[in-house]
Amino acid sequence: MLRYLTAGESHGPALVAILEGMPSNVPVTAADINADLRRRMGGYGRGGRMKIEQDQAEILGGVRHGKSLGSPISLMIRNRDWENWKDVMAPDGVGGQGESERRTLTRPRPGHADLIGGLKYDHQDLRNVLERASARETAARVAVGAVCKCLLRQFGIQVVSHVVEMGGIRARTDDLTPAEIVTRAEGSAVRCADAEAASAIMAKVDEARARGTSLGGAFEVLVLDPPVGLGSYVHWDQRLDGRLAQALMSIQAIKGVEIGLGFEIARRFGSEVQDEIFYQAPGGGEPAGEGFYRRTNFGGGLEGGMTTGQPIVIRAAMKPLSTQYKPLASVDVVTKEASRAGVERSDITAVPAAGVVGEAVVAFVIAQALCEKFGADSLAEMQRNHAGYVAYLKAR
Q1: CA of 218: how far to CAs of 249, 255, 257, in Å?
Q2: Closest to 47 measured CA to CA, from 209, 167, 201
Q3: CATH number, residue 340
Q4: Are 238 and 207 in contact (CB under 8 A)?
Q5: Residue-wise pLDDT tens digits, 352-384
Q6: Rounded Cα distance, 309 and 298, in Å
Q7: Which domain holds residue 190?
Q8: Residue 386 banded pLDDT, cuts 50, 70, 90
């Protein structure tokens, strides 16, 4: 079974990840991973941390001569900012003195894991919480997702994302093809395919910065050309829509997920939201191709917890980040006195970067489902099984 773990703190020496279950002989290079790490670091509204870090992955195991071995793949991303935090985050020694004492956090930020994490794990210094709760951890997940994309690429599956809304400003992309959306989004400072909306969003980011606050938004992830039948209707935890939603909800600051029409479906009649089914016999000349097909994709490429073969369309809503440069009311966890929340270096917005993280977690879930469906010892075995399945579908 494909699975992964990450470890490391925001200002520790490094982030690490172990990806287990990747089939052998999948082409994987550090360049594949680093391309997505660079994309994660970009976006209008990012803070000073991204001026320090130059994220690059080191492959420590599981890959030889550019191909996966079938053994666990171990990855490391060094934190350059560690040089400025060695005393504060040192694994050895005693905290609470000098620089470490100055960096102690006892005033939790509303909306962050600070307070509840401190209560749950019995920490007085809430830095013990925020360092791991930080979205810096997502760099490791992007690295894992990039490896999973290497597998998906062998089956013609592409995972992409773009920003659809920020600060109440919505992008209009209904008349664009997925290829056009990708091209325009990757050329945008806020990863938005609608140039007019992107300009307005950047102005909104500037307004948030001037007001000492943060800005949220929503991004959309598209999975292009997935095979029919990934996932299952048989058990609740095998339903692919549930697994995708959980993966996206696990990203820091994500508060909502919708698939296809999402909540809009609840506002319409049933006859208006089902993707009608058609059939084209071989040689019929229908643009949709041969076999069963749909002319709409209201369901976002998923029915009954399984892929329909249409593009998977899934959106996630990200709240404004918790750190406010004009801090909100809080309480010191040591003195119990009313105070203003602590201020940590942060972004004004991270929605454009969150889209890249969304791609990564979705790519992992799709790769996991692909391995379940077609076997995962070697790439050749998967490709044989996939080819046989495609031939079977055509015969239906």
Answers
A1: 12, 10, 9
A2: 209
A3: 3.60.150.10
A4: no
A5: 999 999 999 999 999 999 999 999 899 999 999
A6: 13
A7: 3-260+299-395
A8: very high
